Amino acid sequence: MNNQMITQTNYNMQMEMILEGILEENISQKPRKPLVFKPYTNRQSMMIPDIESFIPEHHVARLVDEMVESIPDKLLFSHYVGGGRAPYHPKLLLKVILYAYTQKIYSSRSMKRMVEENLPAMWLAGMQSLESRYEQASNKEERKQLRMEKSKRQKHIKTIEKDYLPRLARYEAQREILGERNSYSKTDHDATFMRMKDDHMKNGQLKAGYNVQIATQNQFIIGYKLFQRPGDTRCFQPFMNQLIEALPKVPTQVIADAGYASEENYLFAMGEEQEPLFELLAPYNTYVKEQTKSFKQDISKVQNWPYREEEDVFICPNNRKVLFKRYSQRKNTGGYEQDYKIYECEDCTDCPLKALCTKAKGNRQVHWNPVYEEMKAKARAALDDEQKAALYAKA
Q: How far is 384 from 395, CA to CA, in rounded Å?
């Protein structure tokens, strides 16, 4: 062991002597020149008049600065409630964060160090040093408040992620299944809940099903179609369009029950040409009721009141004028727009018949649909015809 150490020491001494000889030989061969360096000292006071001038023209920091400055202050300030200690300007924070991301810096500690050491970051921060939220808090109460706010935000985020977003996705899926309907069956998504006719137990319940439309001629079925719509009224037009396309010629008469009688279906039967598309023999929903004695003697029914066309007024049972006031539009459940004329009695004060005429506190109003009333008059005239009434009764 000792011999090895002595040998190594002698070897090192020999190598040092050889290197010193080589250096002395080289120095003696070359003439010495005076050494000149650029002035340098970092122990004196320095002042940077314009830090921006040290940022290259096409530096990414300038792009970040220009982009953030283009954001309106109002948009950024809307996330602050005000009060308490003045926070950092949102544009300062946004610039520092975006620039840090371009430099692959993601932690807050590294961003804080970057603002202290990186010249472009210093410029973006306006030479302000950043402190964490907890460093800014001057006492325990403020730190406690910050923790409570953070916990509250996390709770809201968790609620959104675990409850609201899954629920929204479920609602969107259900709405996609619904389409234009207002219900569907969980076991058969194509079926719609409809009020069925009373069964043998007199139970008229909502049940999932389909609306089957069938057209017959001389007791032969000439067309059918399944619908997801519960009411017959809205099925009439699409079914007739399909039937007309399939038949060699358009039928001259179509007989249907009161479920198909509506303003839009009457107008559809009339067609857009001068000649009607076909004659629709369908009683409107109050047709049978209007034939009764009780209806004809009911003074509240405007159908029983005289109408003066030249004055556009109705005459109420107390011989007072019911004057036109304004026009109105309404949409029915199917989205069809109907035009109404609103009439109002000139004065219902002290009228002895008011209790029998209306339950309104003020003057009696009449909502009159001229188009539908004209369609009803034509349907009534057709059904009052003996030949057509017999044809309807046979169907």
A: 16
Rounded distance between C-alpha atoms, residue 305 and residue 319, angstroms: 10
Output phi, psi for 279, to 5 deg. -95, 125
CB 233, CB 334: distance < 8 Å = yes
Assess contact for 283 and 383: CB atoms under 8 A. Answer: yes
Position 5 pLDDT exceeds 50: no
Answer yes or no: is pLDDT of 69 > 60: yes
Residue ranges in 160-262 assigned as alpha helix (H): 165-178, 236-246
- Neighbour tally for 230: CB within 10 Å: 19
- Tell me if 246 sits within 8 A of 271, measured CB to CB: no
* DSSP per position, 250-312: --SEEE--GGG--HHHHHHHH-SSSS-S-EEE---TTHHHHTSHHHHT-TT-GGGS-EETTTT
Identity of residue 315: I
**246-304: pLDDT as tens digits:** 999 889 999 999 999 999 999 999 887 667 889 999 999 999 999 999 999 999 999 99
Euclidean distance between CA atoms 40 and 338, whole angstroms: 91
- Nearest in space to 147 (alpha carbons), one of 137, 159, 161: 137
